[in-house]
Amino acid sequence: MARGQRKDIDGSESVPCFYGKELRFQREEAGLTLEQLVEGSFYGTTYLSEIERGQRRMPPDLARHVDRVLKTDGYFERGCDDVRKARKGGHAEYFADVAEMEKFARTIEEWAPLLVPGLLQTADYARAIVRAGVPRADDAYVQKNVTARLGRATIFRKEEPPAFWAILDESVIRRAVLPPEEMAELLEHIAGVTRATRSLLQIVPTSAVTHPFMMGMAKIMTFADAPPVAYTESLHSGQLIDDPRLVQHYRESYDLLRAVALPPETSLAMVEAAAEDYRNGTQQR
User: SUPFAM superfamilies of this UniProt entry (predicted)?
Assistant: First the structure.
């Protein structure tokens, strides 16, 4: 494609593409550039351009800004939910936005007190977790969810992958969710991905009786062209948090959690030792 030539949008391809095509049409009808439309918001021109191409979600606060500038009477805010539902792609509805955000994140920091983070899971582990959560689901449903979960890890193959930092409770690597051989494969996979992607992994040992994040999992993401967000999850629900003050509170708690956790190399050594124990049948119980 020649420099400066734009790609046409096929609105029939998907709901996000239809939405993005209408956004571009309304922006150009108003005689505005991308820079002019995002002016006064917290988002960058790249973010808006990717929405127009159907590649990225429209956050409600940006939709309200766009409606106000373009005088579109709430059209884009009303359409946000339809686009979000159309982008589920095998993920739970409450997680769909988070899965999409991961693709554009500059940094991803995750606290996992009970389960291995999705970005580090193997197919066997993901299948066991999906089955445990929805025991009556048919095989097609389970496979769709497993495929979607494993597909998230493709972000590590990007030209500029996000900087990933995960902190796991020690119980996560000790809980035998799978048979010993498969648990060994899971832990070797975690260590391998961590080393290959130059990610950081820390373990909060069971000896750490109290710490700042005792109330559940959390994920914090930052972006080059959008405000940071935090995400928390419980059974059958999740909450995406974009209030700057709350995100900062999560940021501070995560920083304190790092201080409680074991150093990265010590943590990796613990994971690899646990994998060997599973293979040898000498795992801790």
Answer: lambda repressor-like DNA-binding domains
Name residue 231's beta-bridge partners: 219, 240
Return the CATH fold of 15-86.
434 Repressor (Amino-terminal Domain) (1.10.260)
Q: Where are the domains of the chain?
A: 15-86, 93-280
How far is 189 from 186, CA to CA, in rounded Å?
5
Query: Could you tell me the strand order of the sheet in which 107-112 lies?
Result: 200-204, 163-169, 107-112, 218-222, 229-234, 237-241
CA terminus-to-terminus distance, the chain: 59
The pLDDT, as a whole number, for residue 94 is 81
pLDDT, mean of residues 202-218:
88
Q: Is 0.90 surpassed by the pTM of this model?
A: no
Angle (CA) 208 211 216, round 5°? 110
Identify the CA nearest to 169 among candidates 218, 204, 201, 211: 204
Residue type, 219: K
Give 102-131 pLDDT, tens digit per residue: 999 999 999 999 999 999 999 999 999 999
Q: Give the amino acid at 15.
A: V
Topology given in CATH for the domain delimited by 93-280: Endonuclease; Chain A (3.30.870)
Choose among 239, 245, 254: nearest CA to 98: 239
**Identity (one letter) of the amino acid at 149?**
R
Q: Which residue bears the tokens 């124990």?
A: 277
Neighbours of 170 (CB within 10 A): 20
